[in-house]
Amino acid sequence: MLAEYGRIRRQPKEELADFVVRIEGQNNQFLDWVNQTAISNIDEHPQRFTLTVAHLDHRPENCKRSNLKALCAPCHCRYDLQPSSMFIKQQLKLERQGQLRLEVA
């Protein structure tokens, strides 16, 4: 399968050996290392992407599982930069500095 940027990628749950066999012999500039490396020398890299834990309500003290989500670093940053997220973070910062909340009923 070709990704949108032109590289061939592994399918979900595809073993590394099966992936190498599937792409072997294809003419692709990114695959030269496959043709030059023995299958036994290719190492698994289970930590290709580092996941971070995002607090969905932006309150670090709320560690309920329903409030936590594992995101890669770029997605975590995108989530934190949403306009609604930025407003919540600013409000929480003001509250920590002593700003009182207006309770609207």
The gist of it:
The chain has about 100 residues and is of the alpha+beta class.
Describe this structure in words.
This protein is elongated. The protein has two domains: 46 residues, no CATH class; 46 residues, no CATH class. The longest helix has 14 residues. With 105 residues, it is α+β, with helices and mostly antiparallel strands. The protein starts with 15 loop residues before the first helix and ends in a 9-residue tail after the last helix. The mean pLDDT is 74. It contains four helices and two strands, in the order ααββαα. Strands 1-2 form a two-stranded antiparallel ribbon.
CA(first)-CA(last) distance: 54 Å
Uncertain runs: none
Mean pLDDT: 74
Q: What is the quaternary state of this protein?
A: single chain
- Specify the structural class: alpha+beta
Order of helices and strands: HHEEHH
For the biggest sheet, the summary is: 2 strands, antiparallel
Number of strands: 2
Question: What is the share of helical residues?
Answer: 25-40%
Question: Main traits of this protein?
Answer:
105 residues, alpha+beta, 2 strands
Layout of helices and strands:
Layout: H1 16-23, H2 32-36, E1 51-55, E2 68-72, H3 73-80, H4 83-96
Antiparallel strand pairs: 1-2
